[in-house]
Design brief:
427 residues; Rieske Iron-sulfur Protein; Naphthalene 1,2-dioxygenase Alpha Subunit, Chain A, domain 1; four-stranded antiparallel β-sheet; 13 helices; 28% helix
């Protein structure tokens, strides 16, 4: 897909997105959503899954890129593919199971068979096509995501035939993935706990904005913080040393490390002490030597990677937009390879916060849906994102930062969104 293929609806994004406010119609219009699919979800790099989900040759798992049903496979040679779940003959869905192990897929409609690299393997009653071998196995194969990229086990896909590389897209956000993966004593994470799906009657951008919004936790999540006797709210208070950082390309983070470093205790980021997880801490020190102390104090990142990957310290979220007012949020517990002692705790805390009866995500989802209802009202037309604008500054690496509860990340998101949505507009 190139810029000449992208729709030009005439929507004046440059007038609807200002440095300190965005127009409410961007969350409700179906034509805006359709253009977002073309210019963002089907053009840029999108997080799809993790290599550990297809650990063995011939493993496969159903995933998605926006509304597109994608089958992530690992072929016999170990290469990872992203295939569109559609038969090249009459468009029937080829793969029905959510996951499994198979070297091929067979369409249930007319029996066309495909290898797990997407190539056509065979078709019944071949005389109707002039005999065997008359159909090209590539052009009549399953559709595929043209570009597949893997960074530290995280699998991304792009429908664009060319464009920025995955490394260029990730930019500084790659360092946040590194932070997470380096918390494993073996330098790898695993996605093995399964994914939960949370449906929200809300626009996907409301979710993406919220992920690094440090202004809401002490209000929206006050009940769970009180019940759990948690100090998380303090990390976002006015006096906290934490910062919100725009990482470029629409990525942002709540950098809580200044507070954890002030505390100066290994595993303090996780709300525990090293004597509660002694085997894990010992393995980390064995693996990283003196560098382990910094890792154990700094902890995991809280980062939103545009457009759909949110790493919330101990959980990973994948945002899936389905309509202007409908989004599914997929969530799983991070599992650290070689960190079995930690993994039990990671899973337990994930269940308690974002599981089916978890309190944290239930709070957020309530806010998403209230937001969606609110932006449909006629007045006021604009949403304000000016918080902290007067006190933004540059850090030592040239990134824009604000205080812990400023809307710096939102402004970075919207600046990148505007750039993508206005590309080719003058053509």
């Amino acid at each position: 897909m190139t810029l000449t293929d992208l729709p030009r609806t005439g929507i004046p994004y440059d007038q609807l997105i200002e440095p300190s406010r965005v127009h409410g119609s961007l969350y409700t219009r179906q034509d805006v959503f359709a253009e977002e699919l073309a210019k963002i979800w089907y053009t840029t790099w999108v997080f799809v899954g993790h290599v550990s989900e297809v650990a063995k040759p011939n493993d496969y798992v159903r995933k998605n890129i926006g509304p597109q049903d994608v089958v992530m496979t690992r072929d016999a040679e170990g290469e990872v593919h992203l295939l569109l779940n559609r038969c090249a003959h009459r468009g029937n869905m080829v793969c029905e199971a959510d996951k499994g192990n198979s070297s091929s897929f067979r369409c249930p409609y007319h029996g066309w068979t495909y290898r797990n690299n997407g190539m056509l393997a065979g078709y019944p009653y071949s005389k109707g096509y002039g005999g065997k071998g008359q159909l090209d196995p590539v052009t009549m194969g399953m559709g595929r995501v043209p570009r597949v990229g893997v960074y530290r086990g995280f699998v991304f896909g792009s429908f664009a035939e060319d464009g920025p590389s995955l490394e260029e897209h990730l930019g500084a956000a790659a360092g946040e993935i590194d932070r997470l993966v380096n918390l494993s004593p073996e330098g790898e994470i695993e996605v093995s706990a399964g994914w939960l799906k949370h449906r929200a009657k809300a626009n996907w951008k409301l979710l993406a904005e919220n992920e690094t919004d440090g202004y809401h936790p002490q209000f929206v999540h006050s009940s769970i913080f009180t019940v759990a006797d948690s100090g998380i709210g303090d990390l976002y208070a006015d006096g906290a040393e934490s910062v919100t950082r725009a990482l470029g390309n629409g990525h942002s983070e709540n950098d809580l490390r200044p507070e954890f470093r002030r505390l100066g205790k290994p595993m303090g980021w996780f709300g525990t002490t090293e004597n509660k997880v002694p085997k894990y801490v010992a393995r980390m020190r064995e693996k990283y030597g003196e560098a382990a102390e910094k890792l154990l104090i700094d902890g995991a990142p809280h980062v939103m990677i545009f457009p759909n990957l949110f790493i919330a310290e101990i959980q990973m979220f994948a945002i899936q937009p389905l309509a202007a007012d409908l989004t599914v949020q997929h969530v799983t517990a991070v599992q650290l390879k070689g960190g079995e002692e930690m993994n039990r705790r990671l899973l337990q805390q994930t269940v308690g916060s974002v599981g089916p009866a978890g309190m944290l995500l239930a709070d957020d989802t309530e806010m998403y849906e209230r937001n969606q209802a609110g932006v449909a009202e006629l007045r006021p037309e604009w949403l304000d994102v000016r918080r902290g604008l007067v006190r933004e500054r540059q850090d030592e690496n040239g990134f824009t930062i604000g205080s812990a509860n400023d809307e710096t990340g939102m402004r970075g998101f919207w600046a990148h969104y505007k750039e993508l949505m206005t590309k080719g507009a003058a053509g």
